[in-house]
Structures are given as C-alpha cells and as structure tokens.
Specification:
The protein is an alpha+beta fold and 352 residues long. It folds into two domains: 184 residues, no CATH class; 158 residues, Rieske Iron-sulfur Protein. It is built from eight helices and twelve strands. It has a four-stranded antiparallel β-sheet. The radius of gyration is 37 Å and the shape is elongated.
C-alpha cells in the first residue's frame, strides 16, 4: 500500500522541504534547482498496526542476536577444539570453528538487519534540505544542530518504542561478550600443565625407533639414542603435545668423564637422560659430538655440554637442558625415577 491509496485526511501533514528558489532548467539557467520530489508516505506512517509489525520484527532480530551471542559463548565452552564434523558441501570441518562462525555471524547480522529495518520502516524518511553555511559554527548553528538532534531522537521513536529500545540495548550489550570470550585464546591460563610431562616414577624408557624398552646394555658409549615414556603411543590424539614435552635423548659417557656431581647421581652407569627440547625456542636437539660430549641445536646453534649437566656453552639458550633421573627396575630395564625436576623447553614465562 502506498500513500496514493490512502484518503488525504489520514495522511500526516507534510513539512516544507523545498529550497527557497526553485526553477526549471532551460538554456538560460541550465542548473536550476528542481527541488525535492513529492514525499510518499510508507504504510507504517499511517497504519499503527503495520508499525507494530515492524517493531516486532526489529525486536525479533535483536533478540535473535542475543540468542546467537549466547550460543557463541556456549559453543566456545562446550565443543572440543579437536572435534571434526562433516557438513555438506564444506566437507570435514572443525565443529568449533563452524559453530563460532555461524553464531557470531548471526549475532552481527541480526543487529545490522534490525537497525536497517528500524531505519527504513519506523524512523522518519523525509528528506531535508539546508542552505550551505560558513565553515565556522556560530551559536545559532550549534543551537540548530541540537534542535535537529532532538528532533531526530524524537522521530526515531526510541522513547515510545520501548520493545525496540530494550531489545536493542540487550543485543548491543551481549554481542561484545563474543570478543571477551575470544581473549581466552590469547594465551594459556595460569595452570601448571606445562610444568609436568608424561614421565613419572616407574615408567620405562622406550626406544623411539624400535618401540622396545631399553636395557643398559643397549646403550653404547658415545652413542645418542632417543626415548619416549612407556604408554605413550603415536596414535594417541594428544601424542604430539605430550612428546613435545617428554622427548628424551639418552647418551652414555664414562662415569669418570661426567663433571657435574648431580648429573652423575641421576645417571645409571654413565647413562644420562636429558630433555631433547632446546631451552631457547623449543627446537628438537639431535646433533651430538661424542669426543666433546656436546650437543648442538640445529635451529640457532645453542650448544650444551652433556658431561657437565647439559649446561649452555654457546648460543642464545637461557639455561641447561633438564635432566631426567633414571635407574633400572627389577627386570633390568631403564626406568624413570621421577618426572623432570624443572619445566622443559623455552623461557619460564612461556611454560604456563
């Protein structure tokens, strides 16, 4: 329905929106001001029932935004980060990423759609013209701006349309919570999970190449062997996270060549077990020089002396490699006597 179908007595009074000087373009005056076209009223301007329908639509969109924001937070808390689902036609995707994207997109879209529908159907749509004025703003202009602002606020019907106002405030209040929740991924919570590894008292040392438990006789003097904790399988879903903390390198040195007293006490017949993770930025160490008992990190050339408590002798690493205290169980296999006494890997503040 348009204003042409409505009796004139039901139409709102028109405001004068024309310029002071109007004219028709001709050869003498090709740039004459034609003025504004006649204003056509919307159905919401003359039918309160239609206005109420639009009001409920806007409120529904704002409410949908609030529900989507709550869904975003619930998905972030409830859905495991490693859960994969199949969605046609996207294929296999992360359930968490999909849920977060859909809910946050819906929340933002609903706020925008509600605001647009509100402006197009309930706010005043009359075009106003004003003559150009100097750049400076005299008191009269400031007063006029405030009057226009108050007039615009009045025409928005924000005070009268309480349902729209309340749901809009609710949506605008809740949607920033999505960003607050995302702050959770900026870094680890203050926990102690990175202070501990899969090693514990009684766990046997498993050769990473053969997946067999290791005996002292398997370790040859001058050799370098890599080990993992018993029970840690490569097919476990958290294997990469656990091996990144628990990776071990085993070296055998003549007991008389071990300079550090604690390193000797924590060894077994000259067999030393150190963390394989460099204390600079966490690269795996694998280069061993058996004559000097030095190991070299291939990333930034940090060098550690395994015969002297794996202390740093060159490079940017900040501290020695943590040592694992080992012994032999009743069956003759090498086993851990405890977890590492200190966190493995890079600087303390990165360990959690």
């Amino acid at each position: 329905m348009s204003s042409q179908d409505i009796p004139e007595e039901k139409l709102p009074a028109e405001r004068d929106t024309t310029h002071g000087a109007l004219g028709v373009a001709d050869e003498k005056n090709p740039f004459a001001d034609p003025g504004l076209p006649p204003h056509e009223h919307r159905i919401q301007d003359i039918d309160e029932r239609a206005a109420k329908r639009s009001e409920r639509t806007v409120a529904l969109l704002f409410t949908l935004s609030m529900l989507a924001t709550i869904g975003f937070i619930a998905a972030f808390v409830a859905i495991p980060v490693d859960k994969i689902v199949y969605v046609f036609p996207l294929g296999h995707v992360s359930a968490l990423n999909l849920a977060l994207g859909v809910t946050l997109g819906t929340a933002l879209f609903a706020i925008g759609a509600g605001a647009v529908h509100w402006a197009r159907t309930l706010m005043s749509d009359e075009e106003l013209t004003d003559e150009r004025h100097p750049i400076e703003a005299p008191p009269e202009v400031r007063a006029k701006v405030m009057d226009d602002f108050r007039q615009g606020a009045k025409e928005s019907a924000l005070g009268r349309r309480k349902l729209i106002r309340n749901t809009m405030f609710g949506a605008l209040t809740l949607v920033p919570l999505s960003g607050v929740v995302l702050l959770r991924d900026l870094g680890p919570l203050p926990e102690e999970k990175l202070r501990h590894t899969a090693w514990s008292k009684g766990k046997r040392l498993i050769n990473q190449n053969t997946n067999e438990p290791m005996r002292p006789s398997d370790i040859v003097t001058g050799s370098l062997t890599f080990a993992k904790p018993e029970g840690l399988d490569e097919h476990d879903h958290d294997f990469n996270n656990e091996i990144a903390k628990a990776a071990l390198m085993i070296v055998r040195i003549q007991p008389d060549d071990i300079k550090d007293k604690q390193a000797l006490e924590w060894s077994h017949e000259g067999i030393l077990a150190y963390s394989k993770i460099c204390t600079h930025v966490g690269c795996p160490i694998s280069l061993y020089e058996q004559q000097t008992h030095h190991v070299l990190c291939p990333c930034h050339q940090s060098t550690f002396d395994l015969s002297d408590g794996a202390k740093v002798i060159f490079g940017p690493a900040g501290h020695a490699l943590p040592q694992l205290r080992i012994g032999v169980n009743d069956d003759g296999y090498l086993e851990a006597l405890s977890d590492f006494e200190e966190p493995v890997g890079p600087a303390f503040w990165e360990r959690g």
